[in-house]
Automatic annotation (TrEMBL):
Stretches forming TPR repeats: 51-84
Keywords: Repeat, TPR repeat
Protein name: Uncharacterized protein
Signal peptide stretch: none
Record has Nuclease as a keyword: no
InterPro entries with a match to the protein in the record: TPR-like_helical_dom_sf, TPR_rpt
């Protein structure tokens, strides 16, 4: 692939994302599809760069309320991402979350739980069910995974510490919760 084509793909994707973030869900998919078409002409079907286009198209359909189309693109994205990354890679996590949200919008509860088998999703569901001790186990798993992948102070590590602290607070464990908040630089005294 020439540098020109890479630049064109980047520009098309950027235009699609700008329109998406401006709430222009009608026009955003056009640019993502154009980027996707160029990528398909230069890369094999399951190349990791194609997953980005599929994901962006899925997001546009989701925001437009076209959940069947969004789900199709998210599933294609997940299939491609899983060939290249570990199950705890951030893009896979986002894709699983979006699949779960899409199925939730479609009221397909049994399938939602299948895609929420990721530890963070499990912990969030357990917290909603007020099963805090079980949720903490999963939040600690997420923290350990993130800590092994990201440098100290990374926003995802901070989010994990926050989740753990809030869960202890929900359990009415103020001393333990305060320790996590102090690590985050929040004064809870």
């Amino acid at each position: 692939m020439t540098t020109n084509h890479i630049d064109i793909i980047g520009n098309l994707s950027s235009l699609g994302l700008i329109l998406y973030y401006q709430g222009n869900y009608d026009d955003a998919p056009y640019y993502h599809r154009r980027a996707h078409t160029i990528r398909r002409n230069f890369y094999p079907f399951d190349h990791i760069d194609i997953a980005e286009s599929l994901y962006n198209i899925g997001n546009s359909f989701y925001q437009y309320g076209k959940y069947n189309e969004a789900l199709d693109y998210y599933l294609q994205t997940l299939d491609t991402e899983e060939k290249f990354h570990s199950p705890y890679f951030a893009d896979i996590t986002l894709c699983l979350n979006n699949i779960g949200c899409t199925l939730d919008q479609q009221k397909k509860d049994a399938k939602v739980l299948h895609y929420y088998q990721h530890p963070l999703k499990i912990s969030n569901i357990l917290c909603q069910q007020k099963c805090y001790k079980e949720a903490l186990e999963y939040y600690h798993q997420v923290f350990n995974i993130r800590e092994s992948f990201y440098p100290s102070g990374h926003v995802d590590i901070v989010d994990s510490l926050n989740d753990i602290g809030i869960t202890y607070m929900e359990m009415i464990e103020p001393k333990i919760s305060r320790n996590y908040c102090n690590v985050l630089g929040l004064n809870m005294n």
